Amino acid sequence: MTILDPSTRSTAQQIREALATLRAADLPTHGGRTLSYVYDSGIAEADAIGREAVAAFGATNGLDPTAFPSLTAMETDLVGIARELLHGPEASVGVATSGGTESLILAVLAARESRPDVEAPRLVAPSTVHAAIHKAGHLLGVALDLVPVVPGSYRADPAAMASAITDDTVLVVASAPSYAHGVVDPVEPVAAAAAQRGVRCHVDACIGGWVLPFLDGVSPWDFAVPGVTSVSVDLHKYAYAPKGVSLLLHRDPDLRRGHFFAAADWPGYTVLNTTLQSTKSGGPLAAAWAVVHAIGLDRYAELAVVARAATQEVADAVAAIDGLEVVVPPDSTLLALRTDGSCDVFTIADEMKDRGWLVQPQMGFAGEAATLHLSLCAATAPGVPDLVADLAAATGQARGRGPVQVDPQLAAAAGQIDPSGLDDATLDGLLAIAGLGGEGGAVTLPDRMAEVNALLDAAPPRLREALLTAVLDRLTR
């Protein structure tokens, strides 16, 4: 789709109008009603200074710290602030990355590179670990040993994880909190088990690392725990900075060297990288630095308490909604909900969208039913009464319709399909069956996704991956 004719020069006003047209179909990034993907402090001044910093530093390049020492100064400052929050020792170091996924990939890379003696490296993680760890393992050739979590608590099982560690294990991972359920893994025994075997332990605090330090009653999870060797925390989540910037901190410089890269064996300049990126705009880093200082740690503490209280308020209110329940009491600002079988979460998600809220459906996994994910931020707090009322109304509508029914024969057939052998024509046919197919192999996304999501939920994970990859492929052609 071409909005403007690239063969002729467009005026600034035409470009602004085109941008507004494109943006009109997007989810709102402010107001606290988009309960995943974006995070809103509700502080207009912080947003404004962040945008100014993006504009001021958008053309700078983090590739060469000697060319733009301002970026090194801001990165070092942010790492220092995070080090204090995460109880890091004075020797701890860090880097700024493009987001949580890059931080996690680098943590796995550093661990892999630290063990050249291991021919087939592996990592141990709970089954609830973020999908970015799966991506890291896939890209880096590190096999994943995923350990089932404790039933009912959805937290890592320390004894089972300890038993899964082998001589080929290069990294153990825990979550603070896990994205899907919003609970903090028992980091102390997990890290102790890793340390006993001489294995690194990374804590994925990408979504919780700028909230948990300000909350009471959270079990120890950061560098205060012996054996924790690295921690990742995203600034574009609960530090409320513009996308995309994350921090990866290591307990000491030796632990970080494995993800540094240098290349002098070519006729150009010597390439030096601390992250996966070479060229990287200084805009996100400068924006994060500006926002962190505009808000300040005292205000972050207030925002964290407000977001946490809002999360608990929603959790308490759900107990009074017929058909809906909290999966597990939340440890932070993330909430997982499920139904009692009288309706389905996919229909509730559609009903909430009609009411102006994004709640994120999560497919069933390992015998557990599908759930709804809510990430609550400070800006959501004033709207909690409306959120609860709309959840009740949406659930009532869903109960009136009853659960979406998937044809048992179709579900059984899906279980017999080998995703590895699907060609484009077959994928087009399957997408049409799923309600996503259009003319000429195009993809059509319906306004209501309950039936599509119910069918995807019935499909085995590998087939679901193949179908959604095909959707992504076709949407970007």
TrEMBL record:
The modification N6-(pyridoxal phosphate)lysine is found at residue 237. One of its GO terms (molecular function) is pyridoxal phosphate binding. Its cofactor is pyridoxal 5'-phosphate. Keywords: Lyase, Pyridoxal phosphate. Pfam families: Pyridoxal_deC. One of its GO terms (biological process) is carboxylic acid metabolic process. It comes from the Bacteria. Belongs to the group II decarboxylase family. Sphingosine-1-phosphate lyase subfamily. This is Glutamate/tyrosine decarboxylase-like PLP-dependent enzyme. It comes from Marihabitans asiaticum.
